Amino acid sequence: IDPATIESREPPEPDIRCSTTDGTPLAFELVELCPEEVAKMVAGDVKRGGGVSFVWPGDPTRRILKEKLAKTYTCDVPVDLLCYADGSLVTPDDLVAEEIQAAINADGCGQFREIWLHGVDGVRRVL
Question: pTM of the predicted model, to two decimals?
Fold first, then answer.
Protein backbone atom coordinates (compact mmCIF):
# COMPACT_ATOMS: atom_id res chain seq x y z
CA ILE A 1 0.00 0.00 0.00
CA ASP A 2 1.23 3.49 -0.85
CA PRO A 3 0.63 5.37 2.44
CA ALA A 4 0.25 8.69 0.58
CA THR A 5 -2.89 7.38 -1.15
CA ILE A 6 -4.85 6.31 1.96
CA GLU A 7 -8.21 8.09 2.25
CA SER A 8 -10.95 7.58 4.84
CA ARG A 9 -14.38 7.12 3.25
CA GLU A 10 -17.98 7.35 4.47
CA PRO A 11 -20.61 4.60 4.22
CA PRO A 12 -21.84 3.05 2.04
CA GLU A 13 -18.23 2.95 0.79
CA PRO A 14 -15.60 0.78 2.52
CA ASP A 15 -13.66 2.50 5.34
CA ILE A 16 -10.47 3.16 3.36
CA ARG A 17 -9.59 3.67 -0.29
CA CYS A 18 -5.95 3.56 -1.41
CA SER A 19 -3.56 2.31 -4.06
CA THR A 20 -0.79 -0.23 -4.04
CA THR A 21 2.75 0.93 -4.77
CA ASP A 22 2.22 -0.04 -8.43
CA GLY A 23 -0.86 2.23 -8.64
CA THR A 24 -3.57 -0.45 -8.45
CA PRO A 25 -6.64 1.00 -6.66
CA LEU A 26 -7.98 -0.93 -3.68
CA ALA A 27 -10.40 -0.47 -0.77
CA PHE A 28 -10.47 -1.88 2.75
CA GLU A 29 -13.33 -2.41 5.14
CA LEU A 30 -12.13 -2.65 8.74
CA VAL A 31 -13.66 -4.76 11.49
CA GLU A 32 -12.58 -4.96 15.11
CA LEU A 33 -12.91 -8.39 16.65
CA CYS A 34 -13.81 -7.07 20.09
CA PRO A 35 -16.17 -8.95 22.39
CA GLU A 36 -19.23 -6.79 23.17
CA GLU A 37 -18.67 -7.35 26.88
CA VAL A 38 -15.16 -5.90 26.66
CA ALA A 39 -16.24 -2.87 24.63
CA LYS A 40 -19.04 -2.03 27.09
CA MET A 41 -16.83 -2.56 30.13
CA VAL A 42 -13.96 -0.45 28.77
CA ALA A 43 -16.34 2.36 27.77
CA GLY A 44 -17.88 2.33 31.26
CA ASP A 45 -14.51 2.27 33.01
CA VAL A 46 -13.20 5.12 30.86
CA LYS A 47 -16.32 7.23 31.55
CA ARG A 48 -15.86 6.70 35.29
CA GLY A 49 -12.19 7.66 35.03
CA GLY A 50 -10.95 4.37 36.43
CA GLY A 51 -8.86 1.49 35.21
CA VAL A 52 -10.17 -1.36 33.14
CA SER A 53 -11.69 -4.39 34.87
CA PHE A 54 -10.86 -7.96 33.90
CA VAL A 55 -13.29 -10.10 31.90
CA TRP A 56 -12.84 -13.40 30.04
CA PRO A 57 -15.43 -13.38 27.23
CA GLY A 58 -15.94 -15.92 24.48
CA ASP A 59 -14.38 -15.36 21.08
CA PRO A 60 -16.73 -13.14 19.01
CA THR A 61 -15.05 -13.74 15.64
CA ARG A 62 -17.76 -15.80 13.91
CA ARG A 63 -20.63 -13.57 15.09
CA ILE A 64 -18.87 -10.37 14.04
CA LEU A 65 -17.74 -11.81 10.69
CA LYS A 66 -21.24 -13.12 9.90
CA GLU A 67 -22.60 -9.57 10.25
CA LYS A 68 -19.77 -8.00 8.22
CA LEU A 69 -19.90 -10.59 5.40
CA ALA A 70 -23.61 -9.88 4.88
CA LYS A 71 -23.06 -6.16 4.18
CA THR A 72 -22.55 -4.63 0.75
CA TYR A 73 -20.47 -1.61 -0.12
CA THR A 74 -20.60 0.93 -2.92
CA CYS A 75 -17.22 0.73 -4.56
CA ASP A 76 -15.75 0.51 -8.07
CA VAL A 77 -12.51 -1.18 -6.98
CA PRO A 78 -11.73 -4.51 -5.23
CA VAL A 79 -12.59 -4.53 -1.52
CA ASP A 80 -10.56 -6.43 1.10
CA LEU A 81 -11.58 -6.98 4.72
CA LEU A 82 -9.04 -6.28 7.46
CA CYS A 83 -9.91 -7.90 10.80
CA TYR A 84 -8.07 -6.70 13.89
CA ALA A 85 -8.35 -7.28 17.63
CA ASP A 86 -6.36 -4.36 19.05
CA GLY A 87 -5.44 -6.41 22.11
CA SER A 88 -9.04 -7.20 23.08
CA LEU A 89 -8.94 -10.95 22.33
CA VAL A 90 -7.26 -13.61 24.41
CA THR A 91 -7.59 -16.10 21.54
CA PRO A 92 -4.27 -16.86 19.75
CA ASP A 93 -3.97 -15.63 16.15
CA ASP A 94 -3.95 -19.18 14.72
CA LEU A 95 -7.32 -19.90 16.35
CA VAL A 96 -8.75 -16.52 15.27
CA ALA A 97 -7.69 -17.31 11.68
CA GLU A 98 -9.45 -20.68 11.97
CA GLU A 99 -12.61 -18.93 13.21
CA ILE A 100 -12.45 -16.50 10.29
CA GLN A 101 -12.06 -19.41 7.86
CA ALA A 102 -15.00 -21.22 9.51
CA ALA A 103 -17.16 -18.10 9.08
CA ILE A 104 -16.16 -17.90 5.40
CA ASN A 105 -16.91 -21.61 4.92
CA ALA A 106 -20.36 -21.15 6.48
CA ASP A 107 -21.36 -17.79 4.99
CA GLY A 108 -19.09 -17.17 1.99
CA CYS A 109 -16.80 -14.17 1.66
CA GLY A 110 -19.44 -11.61 0.73
CA GLN A 111 -18.14 -8.79 -1.41
CA PHE A 112 -14.56 -9.20 -0.21
CA ARG A 113 -11.76 -10.21 -2.55
CA GLU A 114 -9.36 -11.07 0.28
CA ILE A 115 -9.68 -11.25 4.05
CA TRP A 116 -6.78 -10.35 6.34
CA LEU A 117 -6.07 -10.70 10.04
CA HIS A 118 -3.92 -8.14 11.84
CA GLY A 119 -3.14 -9.90 15.10
CA VAL A 120 -0.46 -10.14 17.72
CA ASP A 121 1.80 -12.05 15.33
CA GLY A 122 1.47 -9.49 12.49
CA VAL A 123 -0.68 -9.40 9.35
CA ARG A 124 -1.69 -12.55 7.50
CA ARG A 125 -3.98 -13.32 4.59
CA VAL A 126 -6.80 -15.70 5.60
CA LEU A 127 -8.57 -15.80 2.22
Answer: 0.85
